[in-house]
Amino acid sequence: MEKRYGTLSDYFLGIAETRRQGAQTERSCGRSGESHRSKQTPQKRRPQPATASNTQDTLIYHIAAQTENKSVTNRMKHGGAERPSLKKKFFTFHYMGRASSWVEILQGISAAFVYFRKSEFHRQNEEVEHLLSAPHEIYVEENAVVVKTKLPAINLEKLDERMSQIRISGDFEEYMRKELRKIACRCSCTVLKNESALRAPEDGWEELVDIWSCHNREFSRLLENRMVPRPGGVIYGSLWFAVSSSRVPKCMERSREETTRVFYNKVCTEISESRAVFHYLFDLFQREKRVEVDSRGQTYTMKLIETCSVYNGPFYYLKSEEDLVNALKIAFSVKESYVEENSNSAPRRKTSTDINEHFSDLIADLLKENTTHTQIGKEEVSFILQQ
User: Fold this and answer.
1) How far apart, in whole angstroms, are the C-alpha atoms of residue 249 and residue 233?
2) The dihedral of CA 23, 25, 26, 32: what is its sign?
3) What are the tens digits of pLDDT across the range 302-361?
4) CA-CA distances (angstroms) from residue 50 to 105, 326, 337?
5) Domain spans of the chain?
């Protein structure tokens, strides 16, 4: 059974493999026969936690001991272990309604990362026991333990197809056309029945005109026109829809312009807000390396690591690719929002018209809710799900 211990950062940077190969080279170069080894004086070494020289039970013991908020008086001794009396009551930790572990699919090597909070990594956890009974590698972080294991029988070709940019965008358009057929105001005084729902182009599309044509005059009329929905229809973005101002319910604020933009949280629809956030960030990361949102006086700076497939729940319940969901794997940091000197006003929010305060706060909540409790550098790693 394969067991290796280290940090997850080592895995991402490739350091773990380099160190292992270097250690093997040193051992092979230092061998000069049995007689030479027999003359060496054996040195006593204290057992160290989370190293390959310890047993698996010792690793779990040390991780459990670190979660106790008290000093450990009885230390490990040679030839046996005197362990402190740890609490016997264990329970599964549910973080803001989520299951206790995240499973991330590593498609390139047909493996998976299973993320645990450090306090959950113990023998009484059935999922831990199940994972450790198969070939695995363990990476110990400051607040988390990550187990790398083999994948069950999952069709990886279907996952590749499902995660393509064309498929993600196409599924979103089909989903939105269905959900935007009827839109009701919150007081239910008006229900908009839409005959069409067309997706709005991304911001800055006008700048691409010179790529579409050799002469700007071919699209000059297009640039002069305003984008308006068809009669009886809407134009939609990831977090909002635009409707003719004459069709806006009387109980809602309408623009003096020809069209009014309305965010989904202002009306009643069946649209999943977390799924809308996924597509908002997915589109934004296509043209931006870093994205910032302001929420409750703090600025969240996000960087996309990759688009992946994840499962939220015990690993042994993962049976097929149908159980997986697309996700954005994001590294993020948090800092206090900028406030001008000699100003008593609240921190300034971004002026983008594509997002409002509600969805900014939702992004911040999802980052904290779906965290893996691991870090890359000084940035925490989390998931935004397409669901």
Assistant:
1) 14
2) positive
3) 999 999 999 998 888 988 889 999 999 999 999 998 655 555 555 554 457 789 999 999
4) 24, 32, 38
5) 181-268, 273-385
